[in-house]
Amino acid sequence: MILALFGPPGSGKGTQAKALIQALGIPQLSTGDMLREAIKSGSELGKKAKEIMDLGRLVPDQVMIGMIQNRIQAPDCQKGFMLDGFPRTVAQAEALDAMLAGSGLKLDSVVSFEVNRKELVARLSGRLVCSNCGASYHEQSKLPRKQGICDLCGGVVAKRADDKPEVVENRLDTFLASTKPVAEYYQSKGRLKVIQAEGTESQVFERILKAIGGAPKG
Ligand code: AP5
């Protein structure tokens, strides 16, 4: 199965991806996590990406397309994969279709998360993230059991650099301007599954499973 999770910053893509990879047995390919790894490594790419991410803008298409093209050739992607945060522009969507078609594959579903803007701002302004495994927490609604320590891996839990209020507003505006046309692209191809992503994490999880026709048996 090849899936893409699509939606505005804070809509819960990363949170749901962590649960879905267990249920579906496919890896999560998060372009945001890949970029944060590049930043941590101190590479030239990481330095350039950080400047762009700190402004809430998009990293150039060619960089992101190359990153995904390499990643999907890895052995763990042979039985399928789940994209989280890619594609984010129509150019990325077209490039993905072309690279999959080259291997006789296609994207099965694009799950589009719908959450109102006020809720998105509330989620992002209180978000805490594990710097090791990427698990998400929240200052008001989902604190880790031990302050500052991830329940899942023991990594350090902290705020993300791009969750500052002014950057959050820019990221939401960027989503509306550049990323929303991606939904129209997949809608026109009959692959868009829109889900209401407000409610509890488990309610959203069940809606996603229903939208994609359930987890494979066995
Ligand atoms: P990326 O890391 O992909 O960030 P994003 O898309 O902005 O999404 P987020 O990770 O902020 O939110 P999420 O939807 O995963 O929500 P989460 O589950 O954490 O990208 C970062 C940057 O990298 C971009 O701005 C861009 O610069 C660059 N980039 C990445 N990909 C790119 C690409 N393809 N092209 C160009 N540039 C690219 O949840 C958020 C909070 O809500 C958490 O606190 C969580 O606990 C809470 N929460 C989750 N679900 C619920 C629920 N049901 N109810 C209540 N709270 C909930």
Structure, explained:
There is one protein chain. The strands form two sheets. Strands 2-3-1-4-8 form a five-stranded parallel sheet, with helices on both faces. The chain has a three-stranded antiparallel sheet with strand order 6-5-7. The chain is built from eight helices and eight strands, in the order E-H-E-H-H-H-E-H-E-H-E-E-E-H-E-H. 46% of the residues lie in helices and 15% in strands. With 218 residues, the protein is α/β, with parallel strands linked by helices. A hairpin with a 5-residue loop joins strand 5 (127-130) and strand 6 (136-138). Bound molecules: BIS(adenosine)-5'-pentaphosphate. The site of BIS(adenosine)-5'-pentaphosphate (AP5) has 34 residues, from helix 1, helix 2, helix 3, strand 6 and helix 8.
C-alpha end-to-end distance = 14 Å
Number of helices: 8
Give me the secondary-structure category: alpha/beta
Ligands, ions, cofactors: BIS(adenosine)-5'-pentaphosphate
Mean pLDDT: 94
Largest sheet: 5 strands, parallel
Give the amount of beta strand, in percent.
5-15%
Strand adjacency order, main sheet: 2-3-1-4-8
Structural Rg? 17 Å
Low-confidence stretches: none
The H-and-E topology, N to C, reads as EHEHHHEHEHEEEHEH
Counting DSSP E segments of at least 2 residues, the number of strands comes to 8
Query: Shape from CA axes?
Result: globular
Q: Helical amount among residues, as a percent range?
A: 40-55%
